[in-house]
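Input for the complex:
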Amino acid sequence: MSDASHISHSCEDIFPARLELPRHIAIIMDGNGRWAQQRHLPRFAGHKSGVKSARMAVEVCANFHLDALTLFAFSSENWKRPRTEVDLLMNLFISALREEAASLHENNIRMRVIGDRTAFSDKLQKRIDEVETLTAGNDGMTLSIAANYGGRWDILQAARQAVTGNQGIDEEQFLRHLSLSDLPEPDLFIRTGGEQRISNFLLWQLAYTELYFTDTLWPDFDKSHLAAAMRDYAGRQRRFGRTAEQVEKA
Ligand code: FPP
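Predicted:
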């Protein structure tokens, strides 16, 4: 990927170069509402502050030259929230896309949205298309924003595509139809906000991912927290079904 040195967060101080980096991090950004409530602010203030943490994560991961960062911004279940919160989240999404597009492009980041975007307003769909088109040719980090995304939806839409005109389908053929199939599977999954569950995020893609849960609320999640998660990941032994002895020998 290209030189991302003009991105503001430097990294060497928080993550020693000898440690193994994940190639792909996936994050459930949880705790915005509680962060706001603790401060007697409307929940929306937490989401607004959460955008800053999302920007930090993009900057740090790009600076580390990761292949991919995937952020869960809006689940297919989040439509059940009060209408006003949903509307505010959609507007926040539109404004974040407008404000971040140029910087993503300058930093050679390819952004795309995964999920069923047909439920979004024309304005939001257009804005998504614009940023995807602008950044499509970039070959640095891929930033995937999961929006109106659900892991079960993803598997179902892949199954529908895979069976069309196809009799015997194997795993490799099937996974070509899943979201993120062009990327390495996530190495590290992070969920902030204290809950320890996957909540219908990347169900297929997280099969061998290292899971990391923290009580830190998303708006408080800063560069040092992200580095701590990455250091924790670097200390894990990934066996993919093999024995510890086999892994050590290899
Ligand atoms: C979960 O916190 C957060 C969300 C449902 C929305 C996440 C959105 C952002 C961080 C802003 C937009 C991001 C981008 C990339 C444009 P919660 O509301 O469930 O918090 P709670 O569990 O404390 O109620």
